[in-house]
Amino acid sequence: MNPSTNTGPASSGGSAAHGAAVECPGSETDTMRSMLYGQLLSSALYTCCELGVVDLLGDRPRTAGELARACGAHEPSLRRLLRSLAAFGVLAESPDGIFAVTPLGATLDSRSPASLHSTALLAGRAVGAAWNGIGHTVRTGEPAFPHVHGEGFFDHLDARPELRAAFDTSQERDVDRECEAIRAALGDILDGTVVDVGGGDGALLAHLADARPGLSGVLVDLPAAAAAAERRMRERGLADRCVTVPGDFFSPLPEGDVYLLREILHDWDDASCLRLLRNCRRAMGPRSRLAVVELLYGREPGEDRTLPALMDLYMMSLFSGGERDTEGFHSLITAAGLTLEAVRPLGGGKALLLCRPADRRS
Asked: Which domain holds residue 37?
């Protein structure tokens, strides 16, 4: 059954103003249908990752039968999944039924340094379930995640080690893609002591410390994340230079030369962001700098807003925050007693917003 094959008008007379359906060109209805069915594609990608299909194809091309035996799947159904993903360029199928991974599909290989494999696992599990509750958010203004799962996002992660590991890996892969751009954007100010506020498992701080042997670091995050960061620093031989402070980043912060807020503000509403920025300002010395790394919601004509738009919905479903444009960040930064010195593009729509104290009063 095709639930929407009839793309013509529902009635033959009247006008749109009087409630009659408007006939849409086929290309527009096809586009809309693809958008409506987007959840199917997301679910197919998740299933592909859950079964380890891309990892298997990363070793060598295989038939559907070989893949089914290797991952314990129903061969006819798996073949249909593979062919569907081939239609979207994730896989390639040869005339003799052998499947291979494409460069697009290779981004889901769990062994790739910039892999989106863990992101797919999150989207197919707890996060995706919260997206189904976005109607609750629109009606009430409350995040969907607690409504769907009965607890906040990070509490949910901390109670489920496998999900927590997927989230940490997803964040680490994001850092892998961005770390060189962040380091370059920081430039000469990357010196002394870096305070990574809400730094998770320490992936970014470890990258920066590796790149600058004289750099010291302090990571502030909740106990579960701080413990993971402490393990990372020990494993990387950085424990003598980088320490962790378990705690709430709304509490007083350690002294430092450079403060980092990487993808923290988009979790929070304006009042909470202002509170956090002011907390950073109180800890900063007169020569300290604050670097805010966020996705910017573009406002220029012709600027692609699709990723920021999706990420804004993503954040709205999980937290009380969302994506902001440069003007929105500028207003918050100024209200916190800081001056926005520069906006340095990082690629992919993200930017580093470099801030200094607006005056010398602490």
From this structure: 23-109
